[in-house]
Amino acid sequence: MRGAISVALVSSLPPSEFKNILQTITFEVVLLSLIIQYVVLSGYVKQVFPEAQQ
After folding, report:
1. Contact 7, 30 (CB under 8 A)
2. What pTM was estimated for this model as a whole?
């Protein structure tokens, strides 16, 4: 669900010279935020719950 509203909003823009640039920037920001959250949360979970590692 992260970034769904941003992607929907930029997808609903009327065709213009900036739409492709805005779509690219939006997708990159959403993807980057998901990757950063995964890295941070996985490290946190490993520290808090060390017995859960297999």
Report:
1. yes
2. 0.76
Condensed to tens digits (0 to 9), the pLDDT of residues 4-22 reads 999 999 999 999 999 999 9
Rounded CA-CA distance 50/31 in Å is 28
Three-state DSSP state, 14: coil
Angle at the Cα of 8 from the Cα atoms of 19 and 27, rounded to 5 degrees: 60
Region 38-53: mean pLDDT is: 87
CA-CA distance, 44 to 32, in Å (whole number)? 18
The structural domains of the chain, with segments of one domain joined by +, span 4-48
